[in-house]
Amino acid sequence: MPVAWISLALIVVLAVPAWRLARRVRVVKDTAPSKTGAATRARAPQTRAEPATGISRSQGLPDALSPVEAFRRFNELAFHVERLGLPALADYDAIAPDILAALDAVATDHRYAPRRPLLLPQLLRAMRDDEVTRTELARIIARDPALAGSLLKLANGAFYRVSDKPVESIDRAVALLGTEGIRSLVATALVQPVFRLSERQFPSFPETVWDHTIRAAAAAESHAAIVTDSDPFAAQLLGLTMGLGAIVVFRVALDRYAARGERGLSSAVPNAAVIASLLEAQTACVASRIARSWELSDRILAALEDQIPTTQTRKPTSLGRSLRFGRLMGALAALQAAGRLTDVTAKATMLGIGATELQFDRIWVRLIGRRESPG
Known about the structure:
Blueprint: H1 2-24, H2 67-79, H3 89-104, H4 120-128, H5 134-142, H6 145-155, H7 170-191, H8 205-228, H9 232-262, H10 272-293, H11 298-305, H12 318-337, H13 343-352, H14 357-367
Helix pairs in contact: 2-12, 3-9, 3-10, 5-7, 6-7, 7-9, 8-9, 8-12, 8-14, 9-10, 9-12, 10-11, 11-12
């Protein structure tokens, strides 16, 4: 009889954690944006079983990280925490429904997502037209003083600056950087203002995500040009839009926590693990909603939907592949810049997901050693 009771106790001890784990990894079935704005319902979506990027695991190379581990380390850097695991179910359930409901309408809520830049359609057409001269491009940019100011600040930043002499005019920026360089700057300047945040909770998050965003966009752009032979500018815009999606999810989450505190409810202190789980599940969804509200092209929308966790079993588009590649390499570059990763580990990680040494070397040299903060 004692043996039977001991066996029963062991079964209970093992079964309860298994039940909790099964409940924890439930993932939303309807994550794609819809015209009706139906809420995406995720239940503690972060899981370590498969890479969140949709890229296959590293293939046992020495020093290689799986994409899941790389992004976990990046989130630890962004949230400035020692170790970031899965959130407790009670913590997640207390706040997630409120955040998810707010995210449904985020593309039309201008507290979070910016309005579509007025010059965006004209700029997109001009930058795809090889007949448009640099002077004409500079003239279009100069029509928007805020855009021009952001562009000049970026042109003088460490990531883009090409000489010691300051860039003081749009004409000079165009002349120095060329059409391709200006394309990168324009796309970045459109998104940058959203990242200018001052938060009391997780104050390093916006700057770290901005750093990752510009690196990921640059890597996606290079991958599109070198590997997939797709549109580099579109790939860069995708990287920036994903960064925008991440910062919007972060801001909504902090606001929902603050609202709980004002009502005197429990679980009002922002939880890094909960927010990280929501970022993993919702960033691509939010980015896609914003892109749709900006009336971006179907191929942009398809590439963003390739990043949604529940769609990653399908074959991605060429732009979707470039975006996945860029986001992972951008995360590795941000970790390397923070002293949390070596070049050897970064290279092994990228080779492990199918990159060649030549591809890594050509793109990596563009990403490391240069950094522009949003401040």
